[in-house]
Write a structure and sequence with these properties.
about 350 residues; alpha/beta; Arc Repressor Mutant, subunit A; D-Maltodextrin-Binding Protein, domain 2; five-stranded mixed beta sheet; 12 strands; about 20% strand; elongated; DNA binding; DNA-binding transcription factor activity; transcription; transcription regulation
């Protein structure tokens, strides 16, 4: 391993890494050479030199073109990471020189955004108004590859969903409690505490099967002695979920409590008083182990941790209230007759 590192350190050129990326995108040495403004023979020589450094081929030739093998996929992933980091470096240098600040790219799971990410971003922006900030909202499983490729500086999510969690540094921030919700126009439920079986007549809007919150709902249904619905509507989008719940009183869903509270305040959703038996899932700051964070990223993490240390801001939501009783119309008193 040490010999390979020394060889790469002394002989590897950025042009060779760019060629790998072009080959992966175009599947053709001729097209990749054209995209790189190189002759095909020069591109072939550059690839041979790189394969010689690694002492193994990186591509297999097929009818569809040049396809990277297992080692090729590995090297290409790191080539993209290096290219992304260099691009970010050049962008940060240019922005700092121009006085516009730097750049911060943050990925976050849905439940962490209202009470954790947004307050920290507001504080960061107040202190660095020229900082360029990008926020990506997605599942942890989808954001971790973007962290690997350098497209995200950090992720607020779960490292445990990765194939190899040990390659990440994980700093816990808090829990993500969940609430059962319906649309604001849903008729009042008769009980103070509702069981999942009481919602049997409803159709569920649920997360796709690969998401952790889908597994949590499965576990809750199993603990309640119920089968998963046969005809759910599946979506990972909060907007789609809320729009569907508002459109029909027959729909019910599961949302992070922080997200639910935000829509309850806007009178778009109501929380159904169901007590879930599964423990709340935790989330935290995920970064690449051994990676170097920019000053804005470091400051943002400190703001996140400070926010997490503050007393909980989530207010408990009352159950779906019954409508107030209608008052009988007041009778107008008959006018008094004047006496002579």
């Amino acid at each position: 391993m040490k010999d390979t590192f020394n060889v790469l350190l002394s002989k590897l050129r950025m042009k060779q890494l760019q060629l790998l990326i072009a080959l992966d995108d175009l599947k053709s040495l001729h097209k990749a050479a054209g995209a790189m403004s190189m002759t095909q023979s020069a591109a072939s020589k550059a690839l041979q030199e790189l394969e010689s450094m690694l002492d193994a081929p990186l591509f297999e030739r097929s009818k569809t073109g040049m396809i990277p093998n297992q080692l090729g996929h590995c090297v290409i992933r790191y080539a993209r990471l290096v290219a992304t980091d260099l691009t970010a470096l050049c962008q940060d240098v240019a922005e700092i020189r121009s006085g516009r600040g730097g750049r911060l790219a943050v990925g976050a799971i849905m439940g962490a955004i209202p009470e954790c990410v947004v307050p920290a971003l507001n504080r960061l922006h107040a202190g660095q108004p020229n900082l360029s900030i990008e926020v990506v909202e997605d599942t942890s499983a989808r954001m971790l590859p973007q962290l690997d490729d350098g497209r995200l500086d950090l992720v607020i999510g779960r490292a445990a969903v990765a194939a190899d969690p040990s390659k990440y540094q994980y700093r816990p921030l808090g829990d993500e409690p969940l609430s059962v919700v319906v649309g604001y126009g849903h008729p009042p439920l008769p009980k103070k505490e509702v069981q999942l079986r009481d919602l049997a007549g409803h159709r569920w809007v649920m997360y796709p099967s690969h998401m952790p919150l889908h597994a949590l709902l499965e576990r809750e249904m199993d603990l309640a002695g119920l089968q998963m619905p046969d005809n759910p509507i599946s979506t990972a989008s909060t907007f789609v979920t809320v729009a569907l719940l508002q459109s029909s009183a027959e729909l019910v869903s599961l949302l992070p409590t922080a997200i639910a509270a935000m829509f309850v305040r806007q009178k778009m959703l109501r929380v159904v008083p169901v007590t879930l038996k599964s423990p709340s899932q935790t989330f935290g700051v995920v970064t690449r182990k051994g990676g170097v964070l920019s000053p804005p990223a470091e400051q943002f993490i400190e703001l996140l941790r400070a926010r997490a240390a503050e007393p909980a801001q989530l207010s408990t939501q009352p159950p779906i209230p019954a409508p107030p009783p209608k008052r009988a119309p007041r009778k107008r008193a008959a006018p008094k007759r004047k006496t002579a």
